[in-house]
Write a structure and sequence with these properties.
Blueprint: E1 3-4, E2 11-15, E3 24-25, E4 28-33, E5 38-43, E6 46-51, E7 55-59, E8 64-68, E9 75-81, H1 82-87, H2 92-99, E10 104-106, H3 111-124, H4 127-151, H5 163-176, H6 183-190, H7 194-205, H8 209-227, H9 232-238, H10 244-255, H11 259-263
Parallel strand pairs: 1-3
Antiparallel strand pairs: 2-9, 4-7, 4-9, 5-6, 5-8, 7-10
């Protein structure tokens, strides 16, 4: 099972990346930038290559593992906690896409300078961290606008009234998705009525609570399908699906083919 890490919150640093022995998950959005070489990842069990000179943003609650770093001597990281992310009032569609598992890619010549500078500024502490926060927020706003323009989607930000619900639900789901957990259970844990939770979460993330829970479970299951020899039944039940039938239905809906075919390497028509 991927290692669960406590949320890191807003941080920026630079270092020498090393291959990871297993995937991990954490309740932060993560930004990666590789100046030279490339990084080979498994994200939800799916091979993904990050190339030099591009900015990659993804939701850390999806199991992710750096497996190879040929030619890489330096990698810049930024993590952003949900509280910070939502306080920045980014467009709903952009935030929802990240939480649903999309990897959003930026291609701006300033990113190399910005990522390196943020790591230095963060290490200086004090007011420099506040400046770093402002600049990261501005860069994500620009990334969100570019992403929305390319996909012709709305950039409304009026979902912020329900942002606190999204933070609490995302934390519960990240920690407990593998349990027998329903939307009603989540509502009880968060401390709100199930009907209120359904509307507030939909408004804040662009998806239903059940869909979000399903996507987190599928990300975990995809990782195990590609990185272990466990049976499909064991993976399905261990990922929080109540039955094998429910797992197959969700997998076909979101990935586009049966788990066995995906495990064998057949590409999905679409994915998380």
């Amino acid at each position: 099972m991927p290692a669960y890490m406590e949320a890191l919150g807003l941080r920026a640093w630079t270092g020498l990346p090393l291959p990871m022995t297993d995937a991990h998950v954490h309740a932060d959005v993560e930004l990666n930038f590789i100046p030279a070489g490339h990084g080979d990842y498994l994200i939800a069990g799916q091979p993904f290559r990050m190339t030099a000179g591009r900015l990659y943003a993804f939701w850390g609650a999806i199991p992710h593992q750096l497996v190879a770093v040929p030619g890489v001597r330096q990698l810049h990281w930024v993590t952003i906690g949900l509280h910070e992310l939502l306080a920045w009032r980014l467009p709903l569609a952009f935030t929802g896409a990240l939480l649903a598992g999309d990897i959003i890619i930026g291609d701006d010549t300033v990113d190399a300078l910005l990522m390196a500078r943020w790591a230095v500024d963060w290490s200086r502490g004090g007011a420099w961290r506040e400046q770093c926060s402002s600049e990261v927020a501005a860069r994500l706003q620009r990334l969100a606008l570019t992403w929305a323009e390319q996909r012709h989607v709305s950039t409304t930000t009026d979902a912020q009234v329900h942002a606190a619900i999204l933070v609490r639900v995302a934390r519960v789901v990240t920690e407990r998705f593998h349990e027998t957990l329903s939307a009603s259970d989540i509502a009880a844990t968060v401390g709100v009525h199930p009907k209120y939770l359904a509307g507030a979460f939909k408004r804040a993330s662009g998806m239903g609570v059940h869909e979000y829970l399903t996507r987190m479970r599928l990300g975990h299951a995809q990782h195990l399908l590609r990185t272990s020899q466990r049976s499909v039944t064991d993976i399905a039940l261990g990922s929080g699906f109540g039955s094998l039938n429910a797992f197959y239905t969700a997998f076909r809906k979101h990935v586009g083919l049966a788990p066995e075919r995906w495990r064998a390497g057949e590409p999905a028509r679409f994915g998380l």
